[in-house]
Specification:
The protein is built from no helices and 7 strands. It is mainly β and 91 residues long.
C-alpha cells in the first residue's frame, strides 16, 4: 500500500531503556499507521492503526514470536477508543 506521508522516530516504546524505531505513515486512504521495531532488526514487530483519524488507535497487531507474522491482534470493536478485543491469529 503506498504511503502519502512518512516520518521515522527513535524512542523507547517497550521500556527496556533502548531506542526503538517508530515509522509513522499516512496511507492513500488517509489511515495513520505506526510501524514499530523493538528488536532492532529493521522489521516491524508491532503495527498500530488509526482507521478513522480520531487520534485513538483502532487496531494493534503484534508479532510475539519474531517470525515476521502478526499473531496477536487487539482492536477497538465498539468505536469508543478503547482496545476491547484480543485474539490470536494463526499465520
Amino acid at each position: 500500500m503506498p504511503y502519502e506521508e512518512a516520518e521515522v522516530f527513535e524512542m523507547d516504546v517497550d521500556g527496556d531503556g533502548k531506542p526503538d524505531t517508530v515509522g509513522v505513515m499516512k496511507n492513500a486512504e488517509g489511515h495513520t499507521e505506526y510501524h514499530i521495531d523493538t528488536t532492532g532488526d529493521g522489521k516491524a514487530n508491532m503495527k498500530a492503526v488509526d482507521f478513522d483519524n480520531d487520534g485513538a488507535i483502532d487496531k494493534v497487531s503484534i508479532d510475539t514470536t519474531g517470525d515476521q507474522n502478526f499473531d496477536t491482534v487487539v482492536e477497538d470493536t465498539t468505536g469508543d477508543g478503547v482496545l476491547d478485543s484480543k485474539k490470536s491469529v494463526e499465520g
